[in-house]
């Protein structure tokens, strides 16, 4: 034993002070490696910053769109029937002259000006305002948007401004409130110069108006065969609702009848659209954290997941989903296992390297839609993984005594592997965001509940359970 | 090899000149370690750069009051083992049942060993099978225990002992081959 230790000590002492001459050339490759790494870090930093900016911009845009939609539909909820009536009126009139306002959301934008004889009235519409001239001498103003805002002004010269915007249903002015009536289902839908005012005054609209497309300014009066009513007037709303119903217009019909109201006013999640069974194609990527074997991490990296899904709408906001998926599990290259035996001085070595495992998975999960817009959901589920195969390669060689290996051969090996668990189980939680009626996005942290490798085979006591997350895009087929 | 604290501090600040200086100072020592774990000089240089890169990126973790040489030695050996494991994890399914008997009195071999220079010994070590070579390096030169070797290389402690014993026997045989006088001494 003493001699044995001396043997090692001598070798140790021989090597402890061993130093070799410096090679300037090697520094160049070292320097390149350092620079590349720092460049790579910078690139990642810039990528991160760009991504953060992109998310901010997308968030701002989404917020703006949401607010915009909210503003429009907020008025629409009170004046929907008015709007519907308006559009119906337009469609029933044959002679339409379109007058476009510059902006849909600027209450003061003057698209149309109409002046009366005694009162200089101006009608402002904030939406594209189709002008109907269905009676000679009368210019009809039909607001394409929900008639909502009316105001009159002109204290001294008795001029009044009537403006319509999509957002408010108010009237103001120093005169008795002028009732504004938008074009109605009756087909008349006009604001007339002889309009009755709330106070019983008649408001004549001056012929010298600024309605584009008017041929005879002399007859350009804002004509209305009905009382000009504020949209906030219950009577007017009721009346127009009745008219709308009579004309078969659903309350969700809007201008032109082609644009549905935002789904967020419905209780149903947007994705369902009244469907109870949905079939989907799912595809995405999975990041696996792998597991540690000594100082090596095995199974760490990105994999592919594709499959089909079946979803059932349980009512209210509960959603049940099952599916069948195919997934890869790669980055196994650090693992090789070696069959070695020796006959005399000849070693026969077979090194088998696993490259990738393939699984069929059966996921099942339940999700709950949250939020006012019902576009997001959270859920919990699990998956059964069944290993269907693997790819890898084997290298064989012989070595006699201390000579270099000979007869080295490498060949593919695509068979199920011993030592790996055929069945695995995982659990996951997830967040889903409905991007559109067809496409949803899942972000899914998961954890394996069973060992991927059979420890009895490898003679190791290591927990080979991966964890990570999946990013899946789901496309609804129906 | 003597490394000034200022150089280390400058390297932490990513000073290019300090990095070059540190590389120049540690090159010979690190290369000698790499040569023991690799098959050829080119591979050793490649591994050296990989190890030195790890040293640079982990310099903040180095505690100034401890030996810098010991620290870089450990980082370098760990790098070599990591790289080795990435390429290959041996798993023996065949038990090593062949025992190697002591064939010569080790004192004579040790005396011969003392007279040999380090390059000669290195030339003998690299003739060992890869796994045995690594176990021998880790145990005899780098001071790892069998438990540490087993954990690092993914083998059992018994297998580690077997490789060490096998390596020692082989080296002794080779030393005797190049020093035939030992046999005469033993026979006499």
Q: What is the H/E string of chain B?
A: HHHHHHHHHH
Q: Ranges of chain A with pLDDT <50 over ≥5 residues?
A: 73-237, 248-265
Greatest interface and its residue counts?
A: A-B, 47 and 63 residues
Helix fraction of chain A, binned, reads 10-25%
Describe, in plain words, how this protein is organized in 3D:
The complex is a heterodimer of chains A (478) and B (188). With 478 residues, chain A is an alpha+beta fold. Chain A folds into two domains: 78-257, no CATH class; 264-476, Porin (Beta Barrel). In chain A, 21% of the residues lie in helices and 37% in strands. Chain A has four helices and 21 strands. Chain A has an eight-stranded antiparallel β-barrel with strand order 10-13-14-16-17-19-20-21. A three-stranded antiparallel beta sheet of chain A has the order 1-3-4, with no helix packed on it. In chain A, helix 2 (24-92) crosses helix 3. Chain A is extended. The model of chain A is unreliable at 73-237 and 248-265 (pLDDT under 50). Chain B has 188 residues and is mainly α. Chain B has two domains: 5-87, Rna Polymerase Sigma Factor, Chain: A (Orthogonal Bundle), CATH 1.10.1740; 106-187, Arc Repressor Mutant, subunit A. Chain B is built from ten helices and no strands. Chain B has helices at residues 5-12, 16-37, 41-57, 68-87, 106-115, 118-125, 130-141, 146-153, 157-178, 181-187. In chain B, helix 7 (130-141) crosses helix 9 (157-178). Chain B is globular.
């Amino acid at each position: 034993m003493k001699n044995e230790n001396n043997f090692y000590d001598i070798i140790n002492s021989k090597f402890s002070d061993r130093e070799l001459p410096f090679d300037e050339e090697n520094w160049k490759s070292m320097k390149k490696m350092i620079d590349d790494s720092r460049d790579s870090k910078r690139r990642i930093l810039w990528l991160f910053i760009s991504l953060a900016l992109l998310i901010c911009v997308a968030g701002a845009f989404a917020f703006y769109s949401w607010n915009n939609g909210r503003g429009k539909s907020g008025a629409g909820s009170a004046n929907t029937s008015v709007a519907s009536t308006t559009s119906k009126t337009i469609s029933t009139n044959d002679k339409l002259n379109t007058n476009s306002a510059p902006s849909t959301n600027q209450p003061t934008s003057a698209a149309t000006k109409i002046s009366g004889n005694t009162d200089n009235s101006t009608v402002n519409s904030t939406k594209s305002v189709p002008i109907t001239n269905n009676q000679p001498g009368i210019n009809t103003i039909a607001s394409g948007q929900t008639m909502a805002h009316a105001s009159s002004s002109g204290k001294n010269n008795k001029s009044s401004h009537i403006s319509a915007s999509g957002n408010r249903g108010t009237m103001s002015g120093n005169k008795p409130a002028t009732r504004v009536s938008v074009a109605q289902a009756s087909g008349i839908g006009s604001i007339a110069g002889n309009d009755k005012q709330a106070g019983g005054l008649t408001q004549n609209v001056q012929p010298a108006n600024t309605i584009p497309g008017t041929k005879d300014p002399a007859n350009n009066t804002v004509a209305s065969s009905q009382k000009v009513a504020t949209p906030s007037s219950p009577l007017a709303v009721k009346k127009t609702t009745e008219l709308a119903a009579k004309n078969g217009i659903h309350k969700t019909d809007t201008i032109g009848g082609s644009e549905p109201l935002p789904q967020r006013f419905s209780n149903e999640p947007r994705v369902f659209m009244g469907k109870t069974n949905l079939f989907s194609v799912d595809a995405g990527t999975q990041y696996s954290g792998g597991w540690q074997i000594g100082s090596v991490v095995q199974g760490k990296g990105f994999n592919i997941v594709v499959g089909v899904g079946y979803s059932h709408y349980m009512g209210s906001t509960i959603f049940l989903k099952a599916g069948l998926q195919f997934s890869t599990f790669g980055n196994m290259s650090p693992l090789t296992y070696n069959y070695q035996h020796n006959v005399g001085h000849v070693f026969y070595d077979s090194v088998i390297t696993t490259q990738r495992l393939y699984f069929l998975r059966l996921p099942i999960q339940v999700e709950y839609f949250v939020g006012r817009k019902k576009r997001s959901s959270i859920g919990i589920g699990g998956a059964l993984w069944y290993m269907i195969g693997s790819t890898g390669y084997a290298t064989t060689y012989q070595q006699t005594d201390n000579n270099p290996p000979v007869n080295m051969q490498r060949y593919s090996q695509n068979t199920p592997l011993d030592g790996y668990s055929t069945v695995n189980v995982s659990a996951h939680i997830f967040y889903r965001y409905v991007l559109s009626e067809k496409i949803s996005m899942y972000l899914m942290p998961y954890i394996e509940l069973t060992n991927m490798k059979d420890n009895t085979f490898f003679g190791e006591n290591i927990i080979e359970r991966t964890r990570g997350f999946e990013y899946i895009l789901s496309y609804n087929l129906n | 090899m003597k490394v000034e604290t200022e150089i280390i501090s400058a390297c932490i600040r990513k000073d290019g000149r300090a990095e070059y200086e540190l590389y120049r100072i540690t090159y010979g020592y690190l290369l000698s370690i790499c040569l023991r774990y690799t098959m050829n000089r080119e591979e050793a240089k490649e591994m050296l750069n990989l190890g030195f890169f790890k040293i640079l990126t982990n310099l903040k973790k180095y505690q100034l009051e401890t030996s810098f040489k010991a620290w870089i030695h450990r980082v370098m050996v760990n790098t070599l083992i990591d790289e080795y494991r990435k390429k290959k994890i041996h798993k023996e399914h065949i038990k090593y049942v062949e025992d190697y008997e002591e064939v010569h009195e080790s004192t004579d071999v040790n005396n011969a060993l003392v007279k040999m220079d380090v390059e000669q010994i290195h030339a003998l070590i690299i003739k060992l099978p890869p796994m045995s070579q690594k176990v021998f390096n880790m145990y005899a030169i780098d001071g790892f225990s069998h438990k540490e070797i087993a954990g690092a290389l993914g083998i059992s402690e018994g297998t580690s002992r077997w490789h060490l014993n096998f390596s020692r026997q082989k080296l002794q045989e080779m030393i005797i081959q190049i020093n035939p006088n030992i046999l005469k001494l033993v026979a006499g």
